[in-house]
Amino acid sequence: MAEDFNGVTAAELSLFRDSFRSFCEREVMPHRDQWREDGMVSRAVWRKAGDAGFLLASCPVELGGAGGDYRHEAIIIEELARIGFLDFNIHLHNAVVAPYLYHYATPDQIERWMPRLFTGELIGAIAMSEPSAGSDLKAIRTTARRDGASYVINGQKTFISNGQLSNFIIVACQTDPADGQKGISLIAVETDQAEGFRRGSKLNKIGLRAQDTSELFFDDVRVPAANLIGEAGKGFVHMMKQLPQERLTIAVQGVACMEAALEATLTYVKDRQAFGKRVFDFQNTRFVLANAKTETEIARVFVDHCVAKLLVGELDAVKAAMSKLWVTDRQTHLIDECLQLFGGYGYTLDYPISRMWTDARIQKIYGGTNEIMKEIIARSL
Fold first, then answer.
1. pLDDT band at 79 (very low <50, low <70, confident <90, very high)
2. pLDDT score for 177
3. Mean of pLDDT over the chain
4. Domains with residue ranges and CATH for the chain
5. In 92, 143, 248, 308, which residue has its Cα 20 to 30 A from 157's Cα atom?
6. Helices 352-360 and 317-341: crossing angle, nearest 10°?
7. φ, ψ dihedrals at 161, nearest 5°
8. How far apart are alpha carbons 378 and 16 in whole angstroms?
9. Contacts of 21 (CB under 8 A, 6+ apart)
10. In degrees rounded to 5, what are phi and psi of residue 379?
11. Is 337 one of the annotated active-site residues of the chain?
12. The CA-based dihedral angle spanning residues 17, 20, 22, 25, taken in that order and rounded to the nearest 10 degrees
């Protein structure tokens, strides 16, 4: 990652990494198995992350954040990947949800919401996907009808990360259904105050078992008109402007997981014996890992390049799509190759490579499928 940028030195970033690593070792690692069994992390760990200054890490201080930049978010992702627990979705709260506020919210909205997002009193989510609208956001059917000083929201959302714990949800909905994508707006719902809002069961996923991905239902949910984020009818435009950072965030997750998988596999094959010698000493093993190391280094260089572009406001939709497409594709391939080197043990939950394998598969789907990423890139040719 770029260093000594915007007054933040490499030494300061290293201290932040050490601090968050200590937090993970103290507050996250002892509870991972229980949270996977529960299907979500505890609300208490969110408040502890807030108390420690890890929420809204890249949000400007004047807007109620910690005053860092995207490199701090990348460090959080890398450290969660290192311990195999990206289920704790701080990066959604920090790097996906919060930017909608500090780019589009009014001063009153900043004052109302940012302090509570900073402490973890509010946990953020963004509700775009619907049963009939995943990557195709133009097909959103959830409506928000203006009624005096309120919006009345009706509809259903699905595949919503932080869906069970979140109590601050940015909802993409049609405020003018006759106008297609130009009728889409973003409206914040504080669920603790929202009569008619309900959560479906946590979705039973193959990976990220402690990430509470859920369906959400809105039945005549009335919220103040002052909860409109940005301009009415500009929700689709706002999402298109923020999706590059979301897709880069997925790529950062991808390369961090590649690095973690490679490290875990090297440790295993250098210790495991087969036919009287280390598994590492077989030529096939060394060649597989040589390819893995090369692809991981390429992914790291490209992702760091994209982070540098983001920091100076030059990351475009095409390059972000490239980062998500290539890194997540290589991530799933690399982890599969690494799992193979563990033999039968790789298919058991006794070794973290198995969870890396199942967790990786969603990377090519959410944030816009990789097929959509190819479309975005192809349009630029």
1. very high
2. 83
3. 95
4. 10-122 (1.10.540.10), 125-233 (2.40.110.10), 236-378 (1.20.140.10)
5. 248
6. 150
7. -70, 145
8. 39
9. 79, 82
10. -65, -20
11. no
12. -120
Catalytic one of 73, 78, 215, 246: 246
Does this model's pTM top 0.90? My answer is: yes
For the record, the structure tokens of 229 come out as 């984020």
Distance CA 156, CA 149 (A): 23
Q: How far apart are CA 311 and CA 308, in angstroms?
A: 5
Task: Determine the pLDDT at residue 3.
Answer: 54
Instruction: Give, in order, the Cα–Cα distances in Å from 101 to each of 45, 232, 284, 290.
Output: 23, 15, 50, 44
Helix/strand/coil for 156: strand
Pairing of strands 124-127, 168-174: parallel
| Residues written for the chain | 381
Token digits of residue 247: 């897709």
Query: What are the tens digits of pLDDT across the range 213-231?
Result: 999 999 999 999 999 999 9
Contact, 321 vs 373, CB < 8 A?
yes
Q: What is the pLDDT of residue 136?
A: 73
